[in-house]
Queue: 3 jobs
Job 1
Amino acid sequence: MPAAPWTQFTERQRWSFLSILFLVYACNVFDRNVISVLLEPIKHEFAVSDTLLGFLGGFAFAIFNALLGIPIARWADRGDRPKIIALAIGLWSLMTLVCGAAMSFWQLAAARVGVGIGEAGSIPPSQSLIADYFPPERRTLAFAVFTAAAVVGYLLSFSAGGYLAATLGWRESFIWAGLPGLALAVATRLGLGEPRRNPMYATPKGDAEAFGVTLKLLLRKRSYVCLALGFTLYYFVAYGALVFIPSFAVRVLQQPLSKVSLSYGAVYAAASLLGTLGGGGLVNRLARRDSRWLVWAPAIACPLGAPFYIAAFATQDYTTFLAFIFVGGSILIAGLPPAYAAIQSVCGKPRRAMAVALALFAQTFFGGGFGPVVTGAVSDALQVTHGVDGLRYSLMIMMSILVLAGVAFFYGSRAMLADAEE
């Protein structure tokens, strides 16, 4: 009988590994989201519509990111996960540098495709490793810390990316976003532990599940299907609407990009930190009494946070806008770490990376791919009669989808106990 993987490591090693994965995820979020604060200068330089901006911010990144996530996760469920993550960081960082050299809109879109391909190899193996580093009763906290890396990534993308764009140009923002990842790729390869290297834990290759078996077992779990649907609807909004928020502040609220990059970036980062750590810590305690809190948390957070975002887009005052964003963001983000832990609780050990990858496929392809395009298309259509306020109304419409996400998460909670599997 193989030993539990987390028994191989000391407490210090676990947190050292988690620190590296924290930096990896922060780099992932930075390189992915820096595009959002650069959309307005890109729009002016290449003279493109909001629909094409949505394509650049969403579909160009998402299509191969989603499609390649599944085969990479199959590799991660069998292979050396630190090596996979290191290769992924090196590729997406290099392609981020290429974005800075683009001389046309379509060259930039092609480079964003490359960023998406690289980032497909990060999250599934990272979450799979965390589940092996930490025992079940401590995973919610570990995932909360891991997810909090998004705070650093968002803060850097909005503050540093926006400042560089306002002072040096949008191309320099991409260059400075890509450079740190090349060094991090080396640190990841050398610094992470792989439990499978220990023969007491390593699973023989012949025992690995076939893809069809894995897919069939996961789709039989109603909790997993509802979690994947909830994430897809959430990210349809998060990727679709939120990528246009800097453009909304600059275009509709008439704020300079340098101010937006610092103030909005700081507010959203603070909301992310409060929501991720506060929500993760609270739900971690509640889930010890009833594991369904892992899914009840996002079921409550999505419909509760939506009205604050709608109010933010309805106002004309920038300070009021930031206040509503802070409250709404804190609530929404509080529900995410528990939901990731819930996936690991119901999927079963042989298919951890695949379970994450399939959920990421749905949320990235449909949410990340089509969300920004739909948001941009609705904005373009409404601008005919409402001018720049077309973007305002488009964002308000998109936020209503969060109610449907909450419903999906709630239905997933009803099967959580029956589907639980170590």
Job 2
Amino acid sequence: MPDHRERSAPSDWVGRFLPETPDDHGRKAGWVLDLAAGNGRHTLLARSRGWQVLAVDRVAEPLAGLGDPGITVVEADLEAGDPHGALMEATSGRAFSAVIVTNYLYRPQLPFLARLLAPQGRLIYETFMHGNAAFGKPGNPDFLLQPNELFEAFAPALSIVAFEQGLVEAPAPRMIQRLCAFNGAPVLPG
């Protein structure tokens, strides 16, 4: 069983935007998808805030010890075969209040992530970008976003709330790109 003390802290980016995820008058009625969930640091964050969470990863063993009835773990190779079919099978075709993706990039999936969101649902994405090889892994260009790549991938389908890219110093120096966007038109104050 994994040692929960070994989990790194949740991403500040995820922590910043997850509370803004739509709910049902304070009741967390929908589901959050933690895609490529790793050891579950964002799964636990979303669950601690009252959401039902679907944690999907290629290897479920690090998630096995979460032991919470509000967390469903699915082991799925999201890169095998048809990217849309793999996502739909892993998520049972659900619509999510939020989709969280960190430290993971599989470009063929990008066009399908917006389709997983319920109306007003949020996509919270953060991963490595070009230039990260100077700081360590990943260094393979296949796993590094190009400048503005997330923005360009999601701007046509989603409303962008925030987008950042470049060098971050904490918790360790790395080149990242991050985006928060939602499914729907912005709601303007009345």
Job 3
Amino acid sequence: MLAAYPVHDAGGLSTSLSAAAWVDLVEPSAAECADFEKTSGLRVPAKEELSEIAATSRLHCEKDALYMTAPLIFAGNNEPWIFTPTGFVLSKKVLLTVRYAHPDGFAPALRELDGQVQPMLAYVRILEQMVGHLADLLETTSLDLDDASHVIFRASGRWRLSRETKMLRRLMIRTGRTSERMTRLHYTLVCLDRMTKFTADRAHEWIGPDNSSRLQSVSSDIASLVQFTEALVSRVQLLQDAATGIINIDQNDVMKVLTIASVAGIPPVLVVGIYGMNFKYMPEYDWSFGYPYALAMIVLTTLVPLLWFKWKDWI
């Protein structure tokens, strides 16, 4: 699909591709790419080119135009965050965006431009909207980690062991998914920051002071979001370590109880084994209090290990 947004002037809105200041190609066909290339003289990046990871492939100049790509994030409701490789071709006369999904940031940028479409202004506005969208995702993720922290550090120990272990395991999966999201978001922010600095460096002669100032603001916002993302990644690691530690402590408590029970059960079993032997001459068989004596020995040999464990403060 090809959408062309022309410059708004006194003559009104133009519908000609040659008069467009911003051309947005969404899953473009070969014919649409050919039409743009013929009209503008600029090359449309291929889909495979948008997925390149080398910095020289992501950022370079051709015919006084800046060719840039970035893996933007598509975050649907309760769906995995996926990268949507997006290409930007910026020149003095036109901005070309090439994408194969609908990441947030493009539609709000168009609404805020309100017909005042200029290549550099549209490009800066898209960056601002993308950074703002990523900031919203970070805020949502931070609140999610607040809930996870409450469960781990305040709510643990209120349920039975089996229920608590299942809850903590689900929580570890959730925080692991959050860690993966933060990694993707961090990579997107780094790529956007490189684009911002590349544009300010290579197009400083014609972007204008206002756009230059806005690019600096975008770069500053990205720097703060990168720091916040790194803090969230560290927090995710802390929560996962805490959940793992609590699960291990609970399992160790179970093993401790079983160990104490087995140790405390050995002496009475020994007593029962001795008096259960069928030898002909055993003095205790002739005692009138032999049976109570054996029961008392069983109880005593059970209590002594338990009292010793209690004295050692092991239980």
